[in-house]
Amino acid sequence: MKHLVLTPCSRRKRANIEPGLRASALKPDRLSQVAEAWASRLRRSGSKVVAEELYAGRGLVEARRAAEAVGGELRIVSAGLGLVNCREAVPAYSLTVAGGDPDSIAAKVHGAFSAELWWQALHVALGMPQGPLRDLIQGRDGLIILALPGTYLELIAGELAGLTSDLLARVRLVGPPREMVRRELASIWMPYDARFDGEGGPNPGTRGDFAQRAARHFAETVVRAAPDADSASHAEIVAQHLRPLALRAPIRREAGTDTELIDVIRELLPKAGGRSGETLRLLRRHAGRACEQGRFRRLFAAATAGRLVQ
Question: Which pLDDT band, with edges at 50, 70 and 90, does 282 fall under?
């Protein structure tokens, strides 16, 4: 069977971004015009990198392992590019539908805006007015595992809701909280919740990679146990795995000064293999330190470079 895993892109990129491929470089206009301008810039881009090498972070690693577990293909859901094959060469870019970001596309649109409306307008501009999902699912006979947090579900929710019942029956939605799932999609939602990260949870991590970690568990444990089960049966198996787990008690973490945290980071580097994401996990989980990601990136750079970057 030909299975498929969909995962979100990540904000962090491993390649230099062309100035013109930042949403902040676009002129404000109507939604359709902004989408056309963005698509035009994508087509003109000369510098490209393989998608799975472009995005940084643990989430993509977990999603890849989920795909490998079921012998499936991995695709990346991107607000800037659409639905991308992980082995496809794509331009490095910076665009998000989230507000408050310098490269938020929402700030460039006059009039009504939502993640779903942007997804539709983007694909019209890319020459795929019907969207990419239907054809992608029709071309496979296996499960479609959507490892998506709520923000990325918003992009494709309308397209999902428009699928025929036989196609939707092969989709499993892993990651978003139940309250962000439309009524039409409730039957395909797998009930992963905070217990997955509770005491004794099978694959601990950060909230930012929850969907992908849960999808890996779903692929390795649930699908392997019942490859031909329907969505209700799969949901019940998930519930059985979560039932014995207790919610983790809130953790009170001490922050500390920049100098103190740099010292702790340096102590953790060997155990983390020098990896930024693993170091942050150890800093929070094992060292009991509070550190938001923006601050951590600055301190990690200082710890590895030997100086503090203000």
Answer: confident
Give backbone dihedrals phi and psi of 273, rounded to 5 degrees, phi first. 65, 25
Query: Is residue 263 domain-shared with residue 236, that is, in the same domain?
Result: no
Q: Which residues pair with 50 in a beta bridge?
A: 89
Query: What is the amino acid identity at position 293?
Result: Q
Question: What's the alpha-carbon Rg for the chain, to the nearest Å?
Answer: 20
> Does 114 share its domain with 201?
yes
Q: Please tell me whether residues 11 and 113 are part of one structural domain.
A: yes
Let me know if residue 247 belongs to a domain: no
pTM confidence score = 0.80
Pair type for strands 89-90 and 49-50? antiparallel
Structural domain span for residue 274: 258-305
Which H or E element spans position 174?
A: strand 171-174
CA atoms within 13 A on the CB side of 35: 23
Tokens (6 digits) for 206: 């950060």
Query: In whole angstroms, what separates CA 92 from the centre of its chain?
Result: 17
Q: What is the pLDDT of residue 272?
A: 85
- Are 180 and 57 within one domain? yes
